[in-house]
Amino acid sequence: MAKTLYLMRHGETLFNQLKRIQGACDSPLTAQGIADAKRVRQYFASQRLIFDHAYCSTQERAVDTLELVTSQPYERLKGLKEWNFGVFEGQSEVLNPTIRPGQAGYGDFFVQYQGESGQQVQARMVKTLTTLMRQPDHQQVLAVSHAGACFMFLNQWLTPAEIAEQQIVLNNCAILKFTYADDQFTFAGSHNVEVN
């Protein structure tokens, strides 16, 4: 029987609002980020979703989001952290390299600036989430992570063309649903909270 993973992006932060690069660095949730996380909690309740385990990255914005979404116990995992953008951390998003159509993320651009490559981010996300879902008591799992990390995980299972065709957008508090069986994740849909 297939298991289910709900992979969620954290709520809006101050750096998201200011359009600053935020990977290894952190900033607090905004009022909008808090409100959106609370809407996700209501959405999960309306869908009667009960998670047997919950996880988040070790970064404050993911921890705070998860605590607003559920009151159940959870574990923080470094493997769910955001892409490290090296010396670009905290700088304006206009400095990000352009992603060409059909390209999956930023490739290894940030490695030369003491950051991670997309492949490194993808490998740790796949390893972390596969390790979790292999556990026999993990049937329905919630994991809160970050846009770049979630995007690279999604790119392991869908091509950039499939992502564009399905119009998958990773807004703050976006939820990606996957089924899991035999060390394979299958994308099963996405949900974005309504933004006022």
Automatic annotation (TrEMBL):
Transmembrane segments: none annotated. It comes from the Bacteria. Pfam families: His_Phos_1. InterPro entries: His_Pase_superF_clade-1, His_PPase_superfam, PG/BPGM_mutase_AS, PGM_Phosphatase. Gene3D superfamilies: Phosphoglycerate mutase-like. SUPFAM superfamilies: Phosphoglycerate mutase-like. SMART domains: PGAM. PROSITE patterns: PG_MUTASE. This is Histidine phosphatase family protein. It comes from Lactiplantibacillus daowaiensis.
